[in-house]
Amino acid sequence: MTTQPGDAIPVTVPAPHDLITSWPEQPQQLFLLFHGAGQKPSDMLEMAQRLARQFPQGIVACVAAPHAYDEGDGFQWYSHRGERDENRTERLLPARLEFSATVRAWQRHTGLGHERTALLCFAQSATVALETVALEHDLAARLFAVAGRFDRLPEQMHQHTCIHWMHGKNDDVMPYQAAVEAGYRLRDLDADFSVDVFPETGHCVTEEMEQRIFHLLANHVPLRLWRQAMAEAGQPETPPPSPLH
Asked: Quick check: 140 and 113 in contact, CB under 8 A?
């Protein structure tokens, strides 16, 4: 049996603060929504309800981060108190392991593997998710990361996860330049990704972003499958549309 990072971390599914929007009798997909630091699962509920309507065969759940927020109500993956570039890595390591353990616990509980899993993450959760999928190729088929960042740009990246990164140009919490810089690195690494920067948008998930998420869920063909289909058809590989918008 292969041991995955975070397997030794106990996770309750669902946890007491998680919100389940949809759980059909014969689920085919798993959608897990993760909030930002200081928020609660209910902050992702509107998007979750829309997902449940659009994908009635999917389990849709808003998952609480595992730790109480430092500054009041809500939850967090790690503390932002005193956070600096020099100490972020040491905070992200345990958070990454807990995130991986949480996603894998949901997969075991539902019987739905990584190829049927989509993660929708905002802010701190997006940062933790980006770090995690960069190192674990079998965590999720799709990651929608809104207003996150890489701690350090990856040196290599697999194509088993489609990364869809969205960022507001007026985000004063997490500057959008982090998304643009990461986009160029991911392009150089031949990753399966898109980066969308939304003008006149701050640190939030907007209706426009949600529409983009639903469009990608319905229309994006994973890069490795597209290349495989082209090769099997004996067709020359034509470049897909630019992933940077």
From this structure: no
- The model's pLDDT over 136-174, given as tens digits with 9 standing for 90+, comes to 999 999 999 999 999 999 999 999 999 999 999 999 999
Write down the number of H helices and E strands in the chain.
Answer: 6, 9
What is the Cα–Cα distance from 208 to 5, expressed in whole angstroms?
A: 35
Q: Identify the band that residue 226 occupies on the pLDDT scale cut at 50, 70 and 90.
A: low
Tell me which DSSP letter residue 15 carries: -
Prediction pTM value: 0.91
Count how many Cα atoms sit within 13 Å of the Cα of residue 188 in the half-sphere of its side chain: 10
Which structure tokens are listed for 56?
């009635």
Residue type, 233: A
- The residue among 219, 207, 43, 228 whose CA lies nearest residue 121 is 43
Q: Which amino acid would we find at residue 191?
A: A
Burial class (CB in 10 A: 0-12, 13-18, 19+), 151: middle
Cα–Cα distance, 93 to 91 (Å, whole number):
6
Q: Directed axis angle between helix 124-135 and helix 88-110, to 10°? A: 80
Question: Taking Cα atoms as reference points, which of 235, 149, 239 lies closest to residue 187?
Answer: 239
Sign of CA dihedral 210, 211, 217, 221: negative
For residue 75, CA distances in Å to 42, 50, 100, 125, 218 come to 11, 23, 17, 11, 31
